[in-house]
Amino acid sequence: MTLINKRLVLAARPSGLIKNSDFRMEEAKVPDIQDGEFLVKTKYLSLAPVMKFYMLDGAGIEKPLQLGETMRGRGVGEVIDSRHPDFQKGDFVGGKFGWQEYVVSKGTAYDMMYKFDVEGLSPSTALGVLGVTGFTSYFGLYHVGALKENENILVSSAAGGVGSSLGFLSKIKSGKVVGLTSTNEKKKLLTEKLGYDFAINYKIENISEQLDKYFPEGIDVYFDNVGGEILDLALSKLRRYARVVCCGRISTYKDSLKTQEYQLKNWHKVGSNRAKMEGFFIYDFEAQFAEAKKEMIGWIKEGRLKYQEDILQGLEKMPEALNRLFEGKNIGKQLVKVN
């Protein structure tokens, strides 16, 4: 049977929000695999803010995507044919798929293909709570943030992919955790379903007053996903020996990752409070991923860790799904299920 691959290729460089016209849907016959190759049917594709910058300048970690090339992105799927000794038909794999329905891979280091077993959970979890997103929450909080028992934790973009796991991860250490979010719907979700003690709608509430109410003694760990003014305010609320985890700065993302319009005013609070402010690259912890995954699966089965996924249907929804991250519309890990 002839298989037809649909893929989204870059048609134009974006300016502002992503437009459907920035991409072009193409169809082509799936090639026959050769020795050392395997064929994967895509099940789910992941979204992350950095993808916009693949389209512009490579985000400093990849070569800039060229017009006409398949849009980059991570996915999970099932091996449906193989002439590779390490990948068998029926294996579930994750890696660099691109925005397409079928992937032919040689399993090279660049493709970052790996087999996974989510022990009865949805394969989508390999892109979310049991994938790079979940590991970012785990290692960011426990290793970079060095969370201790009974500490005070503040999380920005708390209903996003990374933030949606941090309520439960904080409670595992008996922490008091407050999430910042953009709507009352998300605020309710954080406290009723995602493990947060309290939540603040930063668009309509006085953040400073609310933080003084919830954390009168100050913040021990601030997990920053947004940068800008909210980061600046959080710096003014630090407790002595606090840790600031620099994970993302989506509020300052424009059309380049290299420029920053907002200049911090309270950076001196890091020094005066003997605090630490640290960024990290999640693959620095790659050797510990398996250990983290095992622990997190155990917590999920025990009901101590729950996760939230926001799934759109169909490859054509990828541009809309990417925009949702910048518009603050996603609730939990943003994914697209490829039909």
Can you give a write-up of this model?
- The model has no long low-confidence stretch (mean pLDDT 93).
- This protein has 2 domains: 4-128 and 309-337, Alpha-Beta Complex (Quinone Oxidoreductase, Chain A, domain 1), CATH 3.90.180; 132-283, NAD(P)-binding Rossmann-like Domain (Rossmann fold).
- The longest helix has 14 residues, at 289-302.
- It contains 9 helices and 15 strands.
- Strands 3, 4, 5, 6, 7, 14 and 15 form a 7-stranded mixed β-sheet that branches. It has a 6-stranded parallel β-sheet with strand order 10-9-8-11-12-13, with helices on both faces.
- It has 339 residues and is an alpha/beta fold.
- Helices cover 24% and strands 25% of the residues.
Keywords:
single chain, 339 residues, alpha/beta, Quinone Oxidoreductase, Chain A, domain 1, Rossmann fold, seven-stranded mixed β-sheet, six-stranded parallel β-sheet, 9 helices, 15 strands, globular
Average pLDDT metric: 93
Question: What is the helix content?
Answer: 10-25%
Major sheet: size, sense and barrel closure? 7 strands, mixed
Radius of gyration: 21 Å
Q: Which regions are unreliable across 5 or more consecutive residues at pLDDT < 50?
A: none
Gap from first CA to last CA: 18 Å
Number of domains: 2
| CATH class descriptor of the largest domain | Alpha Beta
The structural class is: alpha/beta
The number of helical elements comes to 9
Give the SSE string: EEEHEEEEHEHEHEHEHEHEHEHE
Number of strands: 15
Principal-axes shape call: globular
Hey, roughly how much beta strand do the residues contain? 25-35%
Which topology of the largest domain does CATH recognise?
Quinone Oxidoreductase, Chain A, domain 1
